[in-house]
């Protein structure tokens, strides 16, 4: 049984925005994100996806347990959870009729971890990943060829240190991936409106790197996720 929550449903959607909450939370915790982005993207189908399992923290849902989690055991936990996460993305893509280029994975905390890891493991999954207060479980070994990664972090985050986003951005740049990073002072482990504003701006104006490369090479230009 799925507990996903449709937060915006246009008659003929042109973009698919999938929202992923943090551990111990629920899909409706992402309703503020949907309301904010929905104003600028009225033709986007926006769905808040529930974690696959009830959280062992006693409330909400999770993709993997954070009890006794360490840098050493986190990658294995994420890898075990990844197939069901990817299946959820594919299911909504099938139901909406929208593919990779029109799909944005928007995750907070554990939802950001899963979104980043899914994009690294499945380069054909989504055109964009917007990761708030997250991190990679382990930095990817290869370039993300057609996925733009937008990283957002508060410098006062006590749960996941902002340096994880800085390190991820530097690493992705070295690999030749398309990445942006926004680190804001005085913001903790939260979906702050200042970061949501920057996310909206990137979705509206950032042209993916691979689109530029294809245009320069004379290849057919792919359709980017953008405001219509």
Question: Beta fraction of the residues?
Answer: 15-25%
Determine the fraction of residues in helical runs and give it as a percent range: 25-40%
The major pleated sheet works out as:
7 strands, mixed
Strand elements, count: 9
- What is the CATH C-level name? Alpha Beta
The CATH homology group name? Alpha/Beta hydrolase fold, catalytic domain
The residue-averaged pLDDT reads 94
Strand order of the largest sheet: 1-3-2-6-7-8-9
Oligomer: single chain
What characteristics describe this protein?
two-stranded antiparallel ribbon; single chain; Rossmann fold; 20% strand; alpha/beta; 228 residues; 35% helix
Write the layout of secondary structure elements.
Blueprint: E1 5-8, E2 15-20, H1 31-40, E3 44-49, E4 53-54, E5 61-62, H2 74-96, E6 103-108, H3 110-121, E7 128-132, E8 148-154, H4 163-175, E9 178-184, H5 193-205, H6 209-217
Parallel strand pairs: 2-3, 2-6, 6-7, 7-8, 8-9
Antiparallel strand pairs: 1-3, 4-5
Helix pairs in contact: 1-5, 2-3
Describe this structure in words.
It is a single chain. By secondary structure, the protein is of the alpha/beta class. It has a single domain (5-217), classed as Alpha/Beta hydrolase fold, catalytic domain (Rossmann fold, 3-Layer(aba) Sandwich). It is built from 6 helices and 9 strands, in the order ββαβββαβαββαβαα. It has helices spanning 31-40, 74-96, 110-121, 163-175, 193-205, 209-217; strands spanning 5-8, 15-20, 44-49, 53-54, 61-62, 103-108, 128-132, 148-154, 178-184. The strands form 2 sheets. It has a 7-stranded mixed β-sheet, sandwiched between helices. It has a two-stranded antiparallel ribbon with strand order 4-5. The longest helix is centred in the middle third of the chain and has 23 residues, at 74-96. The protein is globular and about 50 Å long.
């Amino acid at each position: 049984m799925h507990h996903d929550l449709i937060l915006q449903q246009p008659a003929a959607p042109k973009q698919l925005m999938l929202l992923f909450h943090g551990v111990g939370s629920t899909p409706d915790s992402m309703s503020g994100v949907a309301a904010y982005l929905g104003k600028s993207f009225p033709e986007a189908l926006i769905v808040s996806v529930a974690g696959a399992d009830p959280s062992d923290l006693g409330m909400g849902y999770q993709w993997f347990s954070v009890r006794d989690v360490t840098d050493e055991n986190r990658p294995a936990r994420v890898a075990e959870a990844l197939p069901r996460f990817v299946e959820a993305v594919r299911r909504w893509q099938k139901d909406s009729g929208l593919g990779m280029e029109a799909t944005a994975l928007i995750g907070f905390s554990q939802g950001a971890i899963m979104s980043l890891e899914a994009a690294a493991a499945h380069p054909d999954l989504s055109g964009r990943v917007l990761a708030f207060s997250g991190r990679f479980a382990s930095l990817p070994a290869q370039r993300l060829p057609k996925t733009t990664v937008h990283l957002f972090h508060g410098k006062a985050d006590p749960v996941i240190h902002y340096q994880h986003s800085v390190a991820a951005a530097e690493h992705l740049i070295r690999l030749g991936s398309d990445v942006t990073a926004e680190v804001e002072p005085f913001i903790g482990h939260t979906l702050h409106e200042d970061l949501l504003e920057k996310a909206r701006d990137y979705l509206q104006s950032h042209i993916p790197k691979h689109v530029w490369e294809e245009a320069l090479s004379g290849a057919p230009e792919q359709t980017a996720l953008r405001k219509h």
